[in-house]
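Researcher: Quick one. two chains, 822 residues in total.
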Amino acid sequence: MALQKVDLKLYVYSGTSGVFSSQDLKYEITKDRISSRDNIVLEIGQLVKDYIVTSFNNDYICNTTWVTAVVNYYDSITEAIYESNGTETLTYLAFDGYGDFQEEINPALSTDLLQTSINMYLPEGTAGKLPIFAEGVGKVVIDTVTTEITDSGNSNQKIQYLTIPADSSSVEIYATDDSTLLKTVTVNNVCEPKFTPHKVTFVNKLGTYQDIYFFKKTTESFKVKDETYKRNTIDTNTLTYGTNEGQKQRYNVNGSTKITLNTGYVKEDFNSALEELFLSESAWIRWEGKTLPVIISSKDMTLKNVLNDKLIDYTVGFEFAFNKINNVR
Amino acid sequence: MSTKINVRSPYFLRFTEPVQEYGIFICDTANLRNFSVDSNGVINNPNISKGTILDQSVYSFNANNGATSISRSVTYTIAIPSNYTNSGDSTIDCVQTFDQPSQVVSPSCPAFSGTVPNLSNIAPSLEQLIDVDSYFTQGTESIATYEVSRISGSGSVTAVISGTGSSTICKIQSSTPCVSAVFQFKAINISGDCTTVSNSFSFNTSGCVNFECLTADIDDTTGRIEKNGTVHKSTWGLGGLQLNKLLYGSTDITTSLNVGDNNTGSDRSIVLTYRFNIPIGYTNYPGTYDCDVPYFQPATESDPLFGCAEAGITDAFISDSGNIAAPKLALGNLISWTPQSFNEVLFDTPRIVTFTIEPPATNFSNSGGANIPCAVELNQPAKQANCGAVTVFISQGYNSVEDICSERAAGNFWQTSNQVSTNASTASAARYQIGTRMCYGNTPVFGGGKWYVITTTQTTGDAAYQFYAIQIDSFGIVQNSQIRNCNTGGGNI
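Model:
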């Protein structure tokens, strides 16, 4: 008796764990066992990634999804599914996150606070958002106010974005036993009388929307792309051409806007947030009352520390992820 | 808590062969079917889907000479295969019932009377003689031949009928201690249309002993307990012996294989109890037997000795052709094994193969040292008999070709009334092709070294004319052949 092959049906769906239909079947995979091995290995992360929707409009909507793998094990002798334990159902909760190389294979990462930095920087008088994993957190104490965290089981609330009231100072995150303090997040309320702070939201390492405020100087620049062609302006009837008509004509003109933002002074712990911003596939900026998509144009980042740099601040370049002239078709 | 997948990194699923757990093994699981009892009382044992029939309460019934059928029941003892919840129980009893039809007795049929006694506790190699003819009386037709058939039991017990008429005797013996078999005699009339059977009777040899720890042959040089409590079981020498439970005091550690960390600061003595299922063939079967094995659990971690248990030899097997497959090792490198192969066998045969294993390069006290020999008992399955597809016919068995002539002198003709199949190239060639096999269906003819007249069609013949005879051994293999005429003589073909 030996394993011959497995066939795997991969369901990706939202709602309640284990409640799926044939409409949710996204992939069917069959793989034979290599004769010299006693196991079969499949990779599903890349397959599931296609079905995680990342969309942000300052609304902080949970985008996790359930993944259920229904696996049939085939016996090489009978070439049929094993009589006992021949079918296995594995269910996972998928996040748009990633593990570092050092975190080894199949990284699970944090199951409470869903951001790596335990420092937040908010403009004075401004509320903030803090992502937590509903399954791993029992209560949250913001200053002295306790908020019980409930988990309905639905995938649309597995990531819960806590609203941090303006001018709060700390957030204590407790385990589901409501007594074990897991993490304390320090809220730094920054007074910035000169510059207008800009909020950039990005998908962080743990797959949640995280805000970073850039408090200091903002520089906006503009870049244009165009093409030209040569045209014939001769009027053959009169055999003349107008000197007011150009021999070269410009077309396909469009431009894109770049901005450079500065964080202001932050603690060394905040390096991880900046690093994740640089590695994020999706980012948005709150700009003139709208949430606009941006692409991080800075490609290099020198991680600063107190020992070398005394005070830490970062300058990050962004490019709006759209053309200046609306040519969306 | 849900298992998280972070999809920007790969997420691997690893699938291995699922552990087979079949729930409780009951008689329905065994699925005994096609059980029947014929009018003579012969039991047709049932087919079984799962498990193995080890024994049965009755081997035959009396013939039903009444006018109505008789309900007959046989209790089969079935070995429970592994991976069932109740595998530790070893066996289960399942009852089969059948209405034995009444026998329509022809006046020409031989009659059986008396009871062939069971032969118990016979010394190995001591031959037992039974006067077969004394149990049968001819009907209106004389008895043409007697046969003995094995109903069950070990193939090492041989039963051979010799002589004719009133001097027909059956010799039964075995050179093996503590084996048993059940036989039955048949008397066949001249016409060959009526067979009368005797009661079934058992034969067993002496030499049976109680199962005990010495029998298990636990090798206490193997096995150890680590400082953290991990148990590495000792090996035992008795092949086929099943461990029922491994106990630490009264705690079952069969699965956990852990006795707990030694935090006492000094080495301590631990006694583990190996609870074995007593195998069949021992006088204290069925049941379990506890064997205590002492170990030392060190207070500090040290490199253990690499032994056969650490090598973790699995998946070694012997094919029905006698070839030995290389085993898988949990640790160490396989260097060689002896012997390299075995001859084919007609019965499942226990074999011992010694694997030579090189210890791992590090982490063991004997790393870099001498290779270790590990003897493993394996079962070589019987080679499926090649019975061929050519049909020939053979007579009753004669102890010698001269006996055929003696019968002729007494006025009895030979008769090839038994259809057999052979793997000889043709029916005609079967008369002289030494080494071919003769079978009843798929079962080799138990020839017992006797001589049989062979023809290509079913017929009766006069030994005063030319005939062919072959000698068949107990495995159906043709050992010799002769062409003969009782008047003029003959010789080997």
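Chain A has a mean pLDDT of 93.
Researcher: Thanks, that's what I needed.
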